[in-house]
Amino acid sequence: MAQNKMLSFVHLKQAYPEKRSAQERDKDFNEIYRSFSDEQASCQASRCSQCGVPYCSAYCPLHNNIPDWLKMTAEGRLQDAYALSSATSTMPEICGRICPQDRLCEGNCVIENSGHGAVTIGSVEKYITDTAWKEGWVEPLQPITELGISVGIIGSGPAGLTAAEKLRQQGYQVHVYDRHDRAGGLLTYGIPGFKLEKDIVARRVKRLADGGVTFHTNFHVGKDASLEELRERHAAILIATGVYKARGLATPGKELNGIVDALDFLISSNRKSFGDKVEAFDNGTLDAKGKKVVVIGGGDTAMDCVRTAIRQGAESVRCLYRRDRVNMPGSAREVKNAEDEGAEFVWLSAPESFVGKDHVQSVKVRGMRLGAPDGSGRRSPEPDPARLFDMDADLVICALGFSPEDLPTLFNAPELSVTPWGTVEADPVTLQTSIEGVFAAGDIVRGASLVVWAIRDGLVASEQMHQWLATRQQDKQDAPTKAKKKAVFA
């Protein structure tokens, strides 16, 4: 009977949760997708083909047991589906909202490749855990035992929060240090509410705090304490800071007022959603209201800026990207959402210079064309001498990606080794850095990447830290016995 619940893709079409109309959603920062009903979630989950080789799981960085929890959802066994979903992920409802499923699980779904349309995995994943929170199935965080050993985690983004949860479960006293006044990292301040409402992150943080994780906010490592001083407080340290340094433009006129970095723009917007006083927003510097906005970049951060500017009441929003639509690195779903909300994409274009006196007034745009493939196999953009035009702009937002900060200098830790790209150098297996007992995980090791990869790295880091600490404790316990034996045989 259970088998009859599955393989319904042959007669049931793919469906996503209802999306609020562009005219409704572009005026607020609430999530744009409504939730599945019980029946919708069950029906969409039943489309899974239960294939012998689940590429959805293989292409998920967490290797979630997707076919199994889809089957459980189709059969109405939601509590079991939640237990299985949360066994491999610390934040399934967050991944269900912000993962690029079209490039990962759904993009590699067997029935997608057979032309029937992928199972809407992300939407079902979100539904399962939202239901679990609603029904009280999300249990408090409780340690197996109390080990009496303290560990420190620098950064409270997805990698840091994941490691904090797993290490606390093992019984460690976990202290998380973050420079911001709220925990969550980019989940809290970098991702707009229309993709991830902030109470979703806050309840995860609260669960950790209620379970005994201590958060030290407004804490700047290197200023409030050096890395070495934190090492003296804790038996092991995890660096999970992410990457926050904006990649700059070498474009003439870049020093003009009105040209801002994407993260500054997004953080100020998210702070206003919390009701904070933000001087740079309140004085108009980071407020797009009534302005002609130009966003430069083609990734998901650029899409976040485009759609945020629309919601702030910009007069117009244009996005310049040097390649074409097919080669855009951002989610195709996000591009479509932005277009529906009124954004204009100017493909094959890049800024040649910014024009203005004290404040930017326009962008001189150079048309681009695609040349030979680069090392990654993508065709390299090159200037098109036949296309040059001006574009009015009151606010230019640069969303060209992020690089690591100079952590050895920032943390007063010159002995911390970094790669030529500035990322922290860590053993690929143990994730231990050049400093004994100091580990690193997430974007600060791999470079700017996806939230789901940061979660994966946090899981690995917690396992490796636990193994290292357990071995160290065992060595301490064995030391007197070894010394006694040595004395006997001396």
UniProtKB/TrEMBL annotation:
Residues 26-136 form the Dihydroprymidine dehydrogenase domain. The keyword Isomerase does not apply. Its cofactor is [4Fe-4S] cluster. GO terms for molecular function: 4 iron, 4 sulfur cluster binding; metal ion binding; oxidoreductase activity. NCBIfam families: gltD_gamma_fam. It holds the Pfam family Pyr_redox_2. Residues 471-490 are annotated as: Disordered. Residues 151-458 form the FAD/NAD(P)-binding domain. Gene3D superfamilies: Alpha-helical ferredoxin (1.10.1060.10), FAD/NAD(P)-binding domain (3.50.50.60). This is Glutamate synthase, small subunit. It comes from Zymomonas mobilis subsp. mobilis (strain ATCC 31821 / ZM4 / CP4). Keywords: 4Fe-4S, Iron, Iron-sulfur, Metal-binding, NADP, Oxidoreductase.
